[in-house]
Amino acid sequence: MSSRAPLLGTYVVQRGFRGFSSSTSRLADQHFRLVVVGGGSGGCGTASKFASKLGQGQVAVIEPTTQHYYQPLWTLVGGGIKSLENSGRPMESVLPKKATWIKDKVSSFDPVNSSLQVEGGDRITYDFLVVAVGLQLRYDKIKGLPEAFNTPGVGSNYSPLYVENTAKAIKDFQSGGTAVFTFPNSPIKCAGAPQKIMYIAQEAFKLEGKEANIQYYTSLPVLFGVKKYADALWKVIGERKNINVNLRHHLVEVKPETKEAIFENLDTQEKVSQHYDMLHITPPMDTPAVLSENKDLTNSAGFLEVDINTLQHVRFPNVFGIGDCTSVPTAKTAAAVAAQLGIMRKNLGAALEGKEPQAKYDGYTSCPLVTGKSTCILAEFDFQAPPQPLETFPFNQAKERRLMYFMKANVMPSLYWWGMTKGWWEGPSFFRKAFRFGMSS
After folding, report:
1. 182: helix, strand or coil
2. Around Cβ 402, how many Cβ atoms within 10 Å?
3. Do residues 250 and 217 lie in contact, with contact meaning Cβ atoms separated by under 8 Å?
4. Could you read off the pLDDT of 407-438 as tens digits, one per residue?
5. Positions marked active-site
6. Suppose 38 and one of 133, 144, 210, 390 were both cysteines; which one would form an S-S bond, judging by CB atoms 3.0 to 4.6 Å apart?
7. Angle between helices 163-172 and 193-207 (to 10 degrees)
8. CB 290 within 8 A of CB 117
9. CA–CA dist 392, 430 (Å, integer)
10. Of 249-253, 337-341, 344-348, 432-436, which range is least confident?
11. What is the pTM assigned to this prediction?
């Protein structure tokens, strides 16, 4: 997402954020008590939790990019409500002061020898490793992309390169046109985001008096994975009347010269051509090749194979994982990472002291289902099969509420920057228990 500095067998080692210092040194065969791979929400939060505890120079964060984004805000950026600039901060400002930032990319993992290699060519060893590499966007799996993003009406809220295209497409949409929104046939970040932007667009068109034919194509057999919230969303769609849902379809090609989106029916393998005037694309996603191709670390699907309750690797006890890249079967959201940070604090902390991990992750995750520029359904649930609601507030969260939108747009970003990346915010479990206690007392 960001440009990288040239690396010729050296690292730019940068520590701190205020009074930030820079130096260039070779870290060949350097050893750290804890190495965190990935500077996203899980990586920053984990590093922040342990850098002070372990001391200066004992924790390394390997991350090549220089910009850190609060990606949940991109729904509102694509909707023309927030600016892209407001969603990002320099990476140096979110990394802990006592951690060593290795501005490079891992080229191989060697968990048998507790080591890894980076693209600069150097080898780093560790006592403990946390893998937090997230998911990568695979626009290349859709024929016609990314070239189609250079044509009118095509955008994607999942990339800082294309999210502003979405806002422009909504603004430029002409009455009587067709707006198409997609959900791919793969695990993705925030499974609610592909339809959140659809509701924002639908509301914008209506407020401007623009007639619109809105088509939602999803690879899933359901509108949303939790029945309580799926029922609420079907009600929203029913009330808005001009949204048509096409289940079990995924996007395989974009033809911008004829404004056609080609979908495949996953049940019949039939190809369907859909005209568009606006097209919002959610790309397929998978784990980075450096992880997915390492069979020692991953399961058959390419995800870091961890115990779903303790987050400890099933074969290498000095390896832990957090966030989207793991095999934990919960919805991949920032809220899930926050809850996992609490488990990481306890279990990695125990492992560092030579003890067995005891804390168990309950699968908590959350998806603020924005349904317009002032309303939101706050979905909170676990990873049971099927997932069950795990709500915080003492009222029915399956209703559109302005309060929930205010939290999504104004409270959660501050909580992320000042709480989660600093390792302090571990999700709302305390508040959930407090509300339940109040109701039962």
Report:
1. strand
2. 11
3. yes
4. 999 999 999 999 999 999 999 999 898 886 55
5. 190, 367
6. 133
7. 30
8. no
9. 9
10. 432-436
11. 0.92
